[in-house]
Write a structure and sequence with these properties.
Layout: E1 5-7, H1 8-15, H2 19-27, E2 42-44, H3 45-52, H4 60-75
Antiparallel strand pairs: 1-2
Length: 77
């Protein structure tokens, strides 16, 4: 498994967030990070991508389909 690490600055740019926001994510342990020397922060790109993929918002079509399934299920009884 290849680890593709990004610097703090590269991660800020990749996420499109400010320095303070990225520090906040680290402080609140929302985003996995690495401190090999105890000072500088590094981020694995796969971890950052997983962070971005959290909590997807369903499309209108997905919501309608789920509603149809529920209605169909409740009307069978």
């Amino acid at each position: 498994m290849e680890m593709n690490f990004m610097t703090f600055e590269a991660t800020m740019e990749y996420l499109g967030v400010t320095r303070g926001t990225l520090y906040n994510y680290c402080y609140r342990r929302l985003l996995k990070h690495y401190k090999p020397t105890g000072r500088r922060l590094y981020f694995n790109k796969a971890d950052v991508d997983a962070f971005l993929a959290q909590n997807p918002v369903a499309t209108a079509a997905e919501i309608e389909e789920e509603a149809r399934k529920i209605v169909k299920k409740t009307t069978k009884k």
